[in-house]
Write the structure tokens for this entry.
Amino acid sequence: NAYKLLGVDRLANLEKIKQAYRTLAKKLHPDVNSGNKEASDHFKRITAAYNLLADQKKEPSYPHRTFFKG
């Protein structure tokens, strides 16, 4: 669950998600934890979770209306 990985509520807005990601990224970044494969793997997972949630928050999944000129 992407929300659980980032430690945020399902109703969190994009700013809260971004803040949680940045906090975790600072702790788990490979440059900070060189040689720690577990931290590197966790960093990859939180980055993927952030990207997934940020995309959904930027563009909610609802039907898009396309208008065509006839």
In short: The CA atoms of residues 13 and 54 lie 9 Å apart. DSSP finds three helices and no strands in the chain. Residues 37-58 form the longest helix (22 residues).
